[in-house]
Design a protein that fits this description.
- With about 220 residues, the chain is α/β, with parallel strands linked by helices.
- About 40% of the residues lie in helices and about 20% in strands.
- The chain contains 9 helices and 11 strands.
- The strands form 3 sheets. It has a 6-stranded parallel sheet with strand order 6-5-2-7-8-9. The chain has a 3-stranded antiparallel sheet with strand order 1-11-10.
- The longest helix has 16 residues, at about 70-85.
- About 45% of the residues are buried.
């Protein structure tokens, strides 16, 4: 549902996607994937509908279903290096730094399809503090929309999945959060296409505080 007035959610942990949720990296994602589409003779607009939220090799497997996975993995490694070297236009999603500041001392984790190098570089380029708990591409065997990353984030924090709230922008990420049995706050226009539990345009009107019973009270609006 779109946010119309202040909503308060109660959770024991928050699980945060990175690209499109905390960091606006659309410019570099577009540049890299449109070049990739041209190299492979694919329609770039169709490619862009697939790639958000997934690990690169999973997007490649969907777009080139007959190509051996070994080639996708090798191509993905090149793509990650290309993306990590390009920080032009990478900025915070409005409100991200202030929102992360309200999470200091509260259970939360980054759950991203980026690897360690890319997530570290993009968060730094956007001027954002990395959460202490991070689930990156290296931590999982399956990419979003598989729920593995979110379930690992919850386990790492010692919190039951149903007590977590996910922040996501992509269809793959929202599907992963739902499959993990978690409530999902969608961030930005992409999220609105996939019916998250709550939709916000950015993070400027989202803050968290610790309640007397130790839970997190999430104020949205």
């Amino acid at each position: 549902m779109p946010m119309t007035a202040t909503t308060v959610l109660t959770a024991r942990a928050l699980l945060l996607d990175m690209d499109g949720t905390l960091v606006n990296s659309d410019a570099v994602v577009e540049r890299c994937w449109r070049r990739w589409a041209e190299r492979h003779g694919l329609d770039a607009d169709e490619v862009m509908k697939v790639v958000h939220g997934r690990q690169g090799h999973a997007s490649m497997a969907a777009l080139l279903p007959d190509r051996p996975m070994e080639q996708n993995l090798a191509d993905n490694a090149r793509m990650l290096a290309e993306e990590t070297a390009d920080m032009d236009g990478v900025v915070e999603v409005p409100g991200a730094a202030a929102f992360l500041a309200t999470l200091a001392g509260l259970p939360h984790a980054l759950v991203t399809s980026a690897d360690v190098a890319l997530s570290t570089a993009r968060m730094a380029a956007a001027g954002l503090k990395l959460p202490d708990v991070r689930i990156t591409a290296e931590c999982v065997g399956a990419s979003k929309p598989d729920p593995e990353g979110f379930l690992k984030g919850a386990a790492e924090l010692g919190v039951a999945p149903e007590d977590c709230v996910v922040f996501e922008d992509s269809g793959a990420g929202i599907a992963a959060g739902r499959a993990a049995g978690m409530r999902v706050v969608g961030v930005g226009p992409r999220a609105g296409l996939h019916r998250p539990d709550i939709l916000v345009p950015d993070l400027t009107r989202v803050r968290a505080e610790e309640a007397a019973d130790g839970t997190i009270r999430l104020h949205i609006g």
